[in-house]
């Protein structure tokens, strides 16, 4: 009979490895949480190697492919001053070798020449690989670093041009942000032209302000929801007869030849 404590060092190591593997499989949420923490900490530390260690080499993003975005993200993480990122809320649901993580995160710092702060929710998909859990799709943080901010800035510029066109009563400037493919209820860009011409004929002065703007980007398409306040003085009226309209609008845009154009919602 073997005496108590007979198990040798190799046997103890084997048991420890088995227990560790069992612990990881019994608590995938904890392991996934560490991966997501690593990703966020890597942003704050400017460590591109650790950032990409959280992602699968086959990570999928239709708009910002990993192979084309890697160098850009590396440069942004290396830039000074450092960015700051963190998790505000996280729910992880793992089943077998796949998992979904719903996370609210923040990213702040100087990005593309401006101080910015983003607080968003992302729906991450992860898979267990021989190298551990990896993010395979759905990262909003990745998209921000890869260039989504640039596209959103371009959308903002298009919408600001529309606002300026209204205030200057400049029909050509307005139509420059309307797609030739514009379509709504069977009406095309010519209907938009007539509508805007009618507005300019009806009002001698227009002031337009958008607020609470939200942009949702999906590849070469985007949806913008915003509130607006329009103040206008009717043609032939005095300043005291100013009229005010306040409402919300939903605009759809497509990226065409590198520029964002409105295709629905006017």
Radius of gyration computed on alpha carbons = 26 Å
Overall average residue pLDDT: 90
Largest sheet: 5 strands, mixed
**Strand coverage percent:** 35-45%
Secondary-structure element sequence? HHHEHEEEEHHHEEEE
Multimeric status of the protein:
single chain
Question: What report would you give on this structure?
Answer:
The N and C termini lie far apart (88 Å). The protein folds into two domains: 12-138, Roll (Nuclear Transport Factor 2, Chain: A); 150-264, Nuclear Transport Factor 2, Chain: A (Roll). Helix 4 (66-78) packs across helix 5 (140-168). By secondary structure, the chain is α+β, with helices and mostly antiparallel strands. Strand 8 (243-256) and strand 9 (259-264) form a beta hairpin. It has a five-stranded mixed β-sheet with strand order 1-5-4-3-2. Strands 6-7-8-9 form a four-stranded antiparallel β-sheet. The radius of gyration is 26 Å and the shape is elongated. Mean pLDDT is 90; it is low at 16-20. The chain contains seven helices and nine strands.
Give a short summary of the structure.
The protein is an alpha+beta fold and 266 residues long.
How are the SSEs ordered, and which strands pair?
Blueprint lengths: L8 H18 L1 H18 L2 H6 L1 E6 L5 H13 L5 E12 L2 E14 L2 E16 L2 E6 L2 H29 L2 H5 L13 H14 E16 L2 E14 L8 E14 L2 E6 L2
Parallel strand pairs: 1-5
Antiparallel strand pairs: 2-3, 3-4, 4-5, 6-7, 7-8, 8-9
